[in-house]
């Protein structure tokens, strides 16, 4: 039997079969490397329970990680939607981490600035200009007032919504799927206890060809799973300059005749982005020397 993982709660998974029936599954032994969006083969162990036998090859896999372990956020997504809000102010470093993770996983990114109904949104919009200039799509909206402008971006995509707590992810999901209070509904008839609600990822069907994965609120988004090479390529505006430094093992930190540093001096690369690169580079280096 083939199915799709539509919810992941630590070691338990909910798998949707082709006939839309959902069953609760565990993995064999200690293996838990499954994510929401994974396509799996399962074997029934009971009427409503099963065990995952294998995972089909993934088109994409989105990770985040700290120094000690990495965590799969979602499999087979085509798009990451980074939800920000005009208030409370968002962490720009977190936005960058999401963008870098998306580039490294070959997933397109869409930045959504929510709560644009509130006055005082100039600051947030100003901050996002840098990302529009880089070529990222930025959509300003108010999930409370009107979600319709987001819908075309979701069509024929498997999207994951990410964002720090309080930006409005639940509001967006509920506006897109108005028939039920999705965040609370799902858990009750899937598991006996709702205690994992906040840590679970869920996949919803918007239509036959469009899915949306809701992930728990992110406060940190480590990128320790990236190599230094992947990291520098994930800064899209660095790409034309890579390989042009004096040293071919240049780290773009403080080496002489660095093409990246020189591009910053010539206003071709924003100094904020180089600063973020340096911070992430040092984080990754520390990791490899642990
Ligand atoms: N003014 C305004 N408030 C909004 C909008 N969208 C969400 N909010 C409010 O912002 C707060 C946080 O929204 P949630 O949807 O719960 O945020 P969340 O991102 O799901 O947060 P977590 O559940 O902690 O991950 C709530 O009080 C919402 O009512 C909006 O478009 N405009
Ligand atoms: Zn360099």
Automatic annotation (TrEMBL):
Gene that produces this protein: rsgA
InterPro entries the UniProt entry points to: G_CP_dom, NA-bd_OB-fold, P-loop_NTPase, Ribosome_biogen_GTPase_RsgA, RsgA_GTPase_dom
An example Gene Ontology molecular-function term: rRNA binding
Protein name: Small ribosomal subunit biogenesis GTPase RsgA
Family of this protein: Belongs to the TRAFAC class YlqF/YawG GTPase family. RsgA subfamily.
Chain ranges of the CP-type G domain: 65-221
Annotated binding of GTP, by residue: 114-117, 163-171
Enzyme class, broadest EC rank: hydrolase
Keywords, ordered alphabetically: Cytoplasm, GTP-binding, Hydrolase, Metal-binding, Nucleotide-binding, Ribosome biogenesis, RNA-binding, rRNA-binding, Zinc
């Amino acid at each position: 039997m083939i199915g799709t993982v539509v919810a992941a709660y630590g070691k338990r998974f909910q798998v949707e079969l082709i006939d839309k029936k959902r069953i609760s599954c565990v993995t064999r032994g200690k293996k838990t490397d499954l994510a929401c969006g994974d396509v799996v083969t399962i074997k029934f162990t009971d009427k409503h329970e099963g065990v995952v036998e294998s995972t089909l090859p993934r088109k994409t896999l989105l990770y985040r990680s700290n120094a000690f372990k990495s965590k799969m956020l979602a499999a087979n997504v085509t798009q990451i939607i980074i939800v920000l809000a005009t208030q409370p102010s968002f962490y720009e470093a977190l936005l960058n981490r999401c963008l870098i993770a998306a580039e490294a996983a070959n997933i397109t990114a869409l930045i959504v600035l929510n709560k644009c109904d509130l006055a005082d949104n100039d600051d947030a919009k100003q901050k996002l200009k840098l990302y529009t200039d880089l070529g990222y799509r930025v959509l300003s909206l108010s999930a409370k007032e009107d979600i319709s402008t987001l819908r075309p971006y979701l069509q024929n995509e498997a999207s994951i919504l990410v964002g720090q707590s309080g930006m409005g992810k639940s509001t967006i999901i509920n506006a897109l799927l108005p028939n039920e209070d999705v965040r609370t509904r799902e858990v009750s008839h899937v598991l006996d206890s709702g205690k994992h609600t906040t840590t679970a990822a869920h996949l919803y069907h918007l239509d036959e060809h469009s899915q949306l994965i809701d992930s728990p609120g992110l406060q940190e988004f480590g990128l320790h799973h990236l190599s230094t090479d992947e990291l520098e390529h994930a800064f899209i505006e660095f790409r034309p300059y890579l390989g042009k430094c004096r040293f071919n093992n240049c780290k773009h930190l403080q080496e002489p005749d660095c093409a990246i540093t020189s591009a910053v001096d010539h206003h071709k690369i924003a100094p904020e982005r180089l600063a973020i690169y340096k911070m992430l580079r040092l984080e990754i280096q520390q990791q490899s020397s642990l």
